[in-house]
Design brief:
- Strands 3-2-1-7-8-9 form a 6-stranded parallel beta sheet, with helices on both faces. It has a 3-stranded antiparallel beta sheet with strand order 5-4-6.
- It has about 375 residues and is α/β, with parallel strands linked by helices.
- The chain has a domain of about 200 residues: TPP-binding domain (Rossmann fold, 3-Layer(aba) Sandwich), CATH 3.40.50.
Length: about 375
């Protein structure tokens, strides 16, 4: 599922500062809270007293300026923050677009309200709507986009420190990013677990796919409880790795690229405020996002992105689709032909693999049908 992507906007969880369930102790939440307090004090004193004026790194606040910075060789630790917008060109719907968004097309599931399909308590009582929707949007039916392969190109060139994704479609993995390259902030379909706290048995992607496509409600073969993909529902906490990694990654980041997200969902949106004050931030999106009033900017919520004021010195907004923006940046970097070839080759490989799998499935189904038709005759002869 996905924006299979960006999990439903967690408006009711805007103040989420979690201690991930089953995976952390109370100290994780306390440390995160302490970091936020210290960030606030540093920014407050810096802004009020005019201390520590940030260095301006970009020659110009344009895509060209960002490309020049990357080409300078001074940029070695790029972090990408991505949301649903990077997957829509793959055919995966976002959540809120009028008429075409996921929430506008859930009437057939007879939900009390659209977001209920991703509420953990509702899921435990009524799992059928979620698994019916999961069948429509299941990973493996879509190919990565230009944007996904641009991030793979960053990795291949030794420039990508990490990709922080709100998406649950696994397309970053399909494009070639590995587990260590990724922080799947809202979870993933890649693994699943029994929902029982006493069991928590793990299941892989193929096991869950078989259950979903046979229209079976996935249940644990050990304790018979429901089995849920490891995506973060409303009412659940984010993975502990999200919190531990951000403390190491963002202070070292020397370019933050934000793509396909409205920067409305906390705590993910607050990550833009965790880079150094001089770190350039590039937004590739269909509209500007992350702009906040000065107080929220000091707190780090929403990021306080500043694209247009006289004081703007590091934030760049490139308004376009994510694919077009990535291709334009690749062109400026001299990587366009390489990126186009990667997309072409990888899509051909995926298509070829899909044909082989479908042929194998057809052969297996034919063999099963043949075996079933022979069985009555054998019984009759006896």
């Amino acid at each position: 599922m996905s924006e299979a992507s960006e999990l439903p906007k967690r408006e009711e969880e805007e103040d989420l500062t979690p201690e991930p369930e089953d995976q952390s102790d109370d100290s994780s939440e306390e440390e995160a809270s302490g970091d936020t307090d210290m960030d606030f004090l540093r920014n407050l004193f810096s802004s009020t007293l005019g201390l520590g004026s940030p260095e301006k790194i970009l020659d110009e606040l344009t895509l060209e300026g960002v490309a020049q910075y990357i080409k300078s060789g001074k940029c070695k630790n790029i972090i990408c923050m991505v949301g649903a917008g990077i997957s829509t060109s793959a055919g995966i719907p976002d959540f809120r677009s009028p008429g075409t968004g996921l929430y506008a097309n859930l009437q057939k599931y007879n939900l009390p309200y659209p977001e209920a399909i991703f509420q953990i308590d509702y899921f435990k009582r009524h799992p059928e709507p979620f698994f019916a929707l999961a069948k429509e949007l299941y990973p493996g039916q879509f190919k990565p986009t230009v944007c996904h392969y641009f991030m793979k190109l960053l990795k291949d060139k030794g420039l990508l420190r990490r990709c922080y994704s709100q998406n649950i479609d696994t397309l970053e993995r399909v494009a070639g990013l590995q587990g260590e390259d990724l922080i799947e902030a809202h979870g993933t379909f890649y693994t699943s677990h029994c929902v029982s706290f006493c069991c928590r048995k793990e299941y892989n992607l193929d096991w869950m796919k078989e259950k979903i496509f046979s229209d079976d409600i996935p249940r644990c073969d050990k304790c018979s409880s429901l089995v849920k993909p490891d995506i973060v529902f409303f009412g659940e906490n984010l993975p502990i790795r999200f919190f531990t990694s951000m403390k190491m990654d963002f202070p070292r980041c020397d370019l933050l690229i934000i793509m396909g997200t409205s920067l409305q969902v906390q705590p993910f949106a607050g990550l833009v405020g965790r880079v150094s004050k001089s770190c350039p931030r590039l937004l590739i999106n269909m509209e500007k996002a992350g702009q906040a009033d000065p107080l929220f900017g000091m707190l780090g919520f929403g990021g306080g992105m500043d694209f247009d004021s006289d004081k703007a010195y590091r934030d760049v907004a490139h308004i376009s689709t994510c694919d077009d923006g990535c291709m334009a940046l690749a062109d400026l970097l001299g990587w366009k032909a390489e990126l186009e070839e990667m997309v072409k080759t990888e899509h051909a490989r995926i298509d070829s693999q899909d044909k082989k799998e479908k042929a194998s499935e057809s052969k297996g189904a034919a063999a099963k049908a043949s075996s079933a038709s022979v069985a009555p005759e054998t019984k009759k002869e006896e």
